[in-house]
Amino acid sequence: MRTSSPDTISVAILSVQCGKVQAFRQPDEPSAIGKTPVTGAVGIHRLGLDGDEQADLAVHGGVDKAIHHYPHDHYAFWREAIGDHPLLSGYGAFGENIATHGLTEDTICVGDRWRLGTALVEVSQGRQPCWKLDHRFDGAAVNARVVKSRRSGWYYRVLEEGTVAAGDGMVLVDRPYPAWSVQRVFGLLIAGEHKKDREGLEALGEVTPLAAAWIRRRAKLLGLEG
């Protein structure tokens, strides 16, 4: 069911982060997860933010993962879970481009369209964690806790290019799939909830803005791919 006139939801952007590719675990295992706050307006284009990079384009970046948003709301949880790690004293600890307070996976839906600064973006999928989070946090079991807690963050595709800066606003423009929170979709596709909710997994097919990689994952879980 489509909702063309959602309740007005807006938040302020706390920080915008970008990062360059550099050596990570080994010299031959580069990453751009180390993102740091930038000052002033940053251009937003089809593949992300000006000055931001991704090391492994097979699994990072692209139109469906142009911008990564991680709730700063979760930092308190992570301090309790793994201790007061230095990365948690600022922004960008999880490799996110956008930091806000007041938006979380249970309140953000796949297909949401947001005015991000002057750009228009659309939520495409949750962030599927990998080993790089554990390594970034010096061996703490962050990856597994992301899955268990559903504190995944999410990605945007860019529908209209523009600019964004810390202090700008984010305003919800459209919420076509209010039943499909990022938390629910992440649970079905990543956290194993499809095993007890095949009906939900089947119904997820109606969510056409879902990222192509997660459309394929849904098909595989349904046994529709050979």
From TrEMBL:
Residues 36-173 form the MOSC domain. Pfam families: MOSC. This is Molybdenum cofactor biosysynthesis protein. Gene3D superfamilies: PK beta-barrel domain-like (2.40.33.20). GO terms for molecular function: catalytic activity; molybdenum ion binding; pyridoxal phosphate binding. PANTHER family: PROTEIN YIIM (PTHR30212). Transmembrane segments: none annotated.
